Amino acid sequence: MSTTPVILLLSGSLRDGSTNEAVLRTAQAAAPGRLRTVLYDGLAGLPHFNPDHDTDPLPAPVARLREAIDAATGILICAPEYAGTLPGSFKNLLDWTVGGTEICDKPVAWINAAGPGRGDGAAATLRTVLGYTGAAVVEPACARIPVDRGALDADGLITDPAVRARLADVLDLLAAHHAELQEAPQELRAT
Ligand SMILES: Cc1cc2nc3c(=O)[nH]c(=O)nc-3n(C[C@H](O)[C@H](O)[C@H](O)COP(=O)(O)O)c2cc1C
To answer: Which residue ranges does the record assign to the NADPH-dependent FMN reductase-like domain (predicted)?
Structure first.
């Protein structure tokens, strides 16, 4: 069995040229070779959450989301703040995770890319909602990395080496959490 950590990257923005997606795509580019990253691209295709549809068979986009979470050893989220909280479309994604077990005890971290003094409402909501999903928040891997739209290059990536190094650190910390779990006795493993 492969022990290469796989980090699922979840952007909370649907906007073309999103800075939050840019953070995650830059994280992919800067990722240490010992781990794999997968950028989830299904946010726009998720149906509105409806408990009546949270049954077998699940809507195909929801099944795909849950499979991606299940296959990951950790999750990194980067979501903007809308009106003091998470974007509705991303809260919708999180609502779809509640009825499954895939995210339970899954190591999760987030990056807050908002400018100084901004984005705290979204971060607070994220923490609350993740608590309900049962995800295991890896606090040392959660980071505030302010990113300005002007910081993106022609490919939509962040070139600042300091930001890239921090993103690599965040992924490393999530992967290290995975490694610790692999070494833990079976009954203590999260996944
Ligand atoms: C409808 C809407 C509401 C917003 N509300 C807030 C807010 O409450 N607090 C904040 O700091 N920024 C707010 N913003 C700014 C966005 O968080 C900011 O533009 C962010 O970079 C968008 O992320 P993206 O570039 O990944 O799409 C809002 C933007 C929009 C479009």
So the answer is: 7-140
